[in-house]
Amino acid sequence: QKEVEQNSGPLSVPEGAIASLNCTYSDRGSQSFFWYRQYSGKSPELIMSIYSNGDKEDGRFTAQLNKASQYVSLLIRDSQPSDSATYLCAVNRNQAGTALIFGKGTTLSVSS
Amino acid sequence: GAVVSQHPSRVICKSGTSVKIECRSLDFQATTMFWYRQFPKQSLMLMATSNEGSKATYEQGVEKDKFLINHASLTLSTLTVTSAHPEDSSFYICSARDVASTRNEQFFGPGTRLTVL
Fold it and tell me: What whole-number percentage of chain B has pLDDT above 70?
């Protein structure tokens, strides 16, 4: 069974710190990797996608992918209280019509 | 770009009635849309994959006769909760994938909060 594992948290960091969120996946055929942010009571919002090994940076966010270790991470620099949310890791084989496989999410709390 | 809308955003109904939820991709075409359900403080649960012009594929444990899905066009999928009961009260969210994109990104609608009395 294809699985995506995340530490549920909560992960608590002070404002301005780096938050590090981790995710492992079981399906070696996975080719697409995503991070979604979900605020309480809202639907998920795509914040990062990564497809090849290495780092991908977008503003304060950096996604890291290591396919050999089946590991994806998200770093949030200069964390802000507005970053407090649940972060969902999702993977996919990139086959037409296939749904993303989601982890259960990590709750991040940034204190001011 | 990549905007997905849902209607209604919130619905309250009596037990036994049917509720239809619409999911539209506003600025792209989607041959495939996905329907999820999320109970409070729980993770997303995939209910079904909606394919344009063909029958939906339901996940194990999801009753296809209770949750009717129609994907009649490249921009619209509907989910009908038939004979709704209080245990169907949940947050229903759709997502869609841009058929023209190779990036396989899926974009979520804002969700529909269903309360069955």
Answer: 99
